[in-house]
UniProtKB/TrEMBL annotation:
<dbReference type="InterPro" id="IPR002934">
    <property type="entry name" value="Polymerase_NTP_transf_dom"/>
</dbReference>
<dbReference type="Pfam" id="PF01909">
    <property type="entry name" value="NTP_transf_2"/>
</dbReference>
<keyword id="KW-0547">Nucleotide-binding</keyword>
<dbReference type="GO" id="GO:0016779">
    <property type="term" value="F:nucleotidyltransferase activity"/>
</dbReference>
<keyword id="KW-0548">Nucleotidyltransferase</keyword>
<protein>
    <recommendedName>
        <fullName>Polymerase nucleotidyl transferase domain-containing protein</fullName>
    </recommendedName>
</protein>
<dbReference type="GO" id="GO:0005524">
    <property type="term" value="F:ATP binding"/>
</dbReference>
<comment type="similarity">
    <text>Belongs to the MntA antitoxin family.</text>
</comment>
<keyword id="KW-0067">ATP-binding</keyword>
<feature type="domain" description="Polymerase nucleotidyl transferase">
    <location>
        <begin position="15"/>
        <end position="92"/>
    </location>
</feature>
<keyword id="KW-1277">Toxin-antitoxin system</keyword>
<keyword id="KW-0479">Metal-binding</keyword>
<keyword id="KW-0808">Transferase</keyword>
<dbReference type="InterPro" id="IPR043519">
    <property type="entry name" value="NT_sf"/>
</dbReference>
<keyword id="KW-0460">Magnesium</keyword>
<dbReference type="GO" id="GO:0046872">
    <property type="term" value="F:metal ion binding"/>
</dbReference>
<dbReference type="InterPro" id="IPR052038">
    <property type="entry name" value="Type-VII_TA_antitoxin"/>
</dbReference>
Length: 95
C-alpha cells in the first residue's frame, strides 16, 4: 500500500516540502482511506507560506513523484472545487 511507503519516506517528503515553503502536508483520497490500489495516485493537500509561487508547487510535485514513482496531485485549500471541498477537508489526514 502506498500509505506504508509514505510513512517510510515521511521525513524526506517533509524535507522537500520545507524546501518549497510548504508548511502543512495532508493526504486525502483513496490513500487516506486505505483503499488505494496499484493504479492509485497520491492526493496531497498543502499549505504554502506567503510569497511562494506555482513553480514551487510544481517542483514539489515533481520531486515527490520522482521519490515515490507514483503520480501525485497537489492542491491547496483555495483551489479545491466547492463541490468537493467538504469531502476533501474532512477526509484529509496529516502526513
Amino acid at each position: 500500500m502506498l500509505y506504508d511507503v509514505l510513512q517510510e519516506k515521511r521525513d524526506v517528503i517533509l524535507k522537500i516540502a520545507d524546501e518549497y515553503g510548504i508548511q502543512n502536508v495532508q493526504i486525502f483520497g483513496s490513500v487516506a482511506r486505505l483503499e488505494d490500489g496499484s493504479a492509485s495516485d497520491l492526493d496531497l493537500l498543502v499549505e504554502f507560506e506567503k510569497g511562494r509561487s506555482l513553480f514551487d508547487l510544481i517542483r514539489f510535485k515533481q520531486e515527490v513523484e520522482d521519490l515515490l514513482d507514483v503520480k501525485v496531485d497537489v492542491v491547496t485549500e483555495n483551489s479545491i472545487h466547492w463541490s468537493m471541498r467538504d469531502e476533501v477537508l474532512n477526509g484529509a489526514i496529516q502526513l
